[in-house]
């Protein structure tokens, strides 16, 4: 374990290119991936989790 408080273990953060360097195809692919990921997450959440999320949102 590293004692440096700013140390981030490799692989814990998703690396992402800056948007200026992306082609429209790459942006579309990333957006589609995000939408699919969110859809799966919402499908997996329980009623209690959903109520909590909506309560915190408003």
TrEMBL record:
It comes from the Eukaryota. Residues 19-31, 42-58 have a biased composition (Basic and acidic residues). InterPro entries: STPR (IPR048998). Residues 14-54 form the STPR domain. This is 10744_t:CDS:1. Residues 1-58 are annotated as: Disordered. It comes from Funneliformis caledonium.
């Amino acid at each position: 374990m590293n004692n440096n408080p700013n140390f981030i273990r490799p692989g814990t953060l998703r690396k992402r290119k800056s948007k200026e360097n992306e082609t429209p195809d790459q942006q579309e692919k990333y957006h589609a991936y995000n939408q699919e990921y969110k859809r799966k997450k919402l499908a997996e959440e329980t009623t209690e989790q959903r109520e909590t999320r909506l309560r915190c949102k408003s």
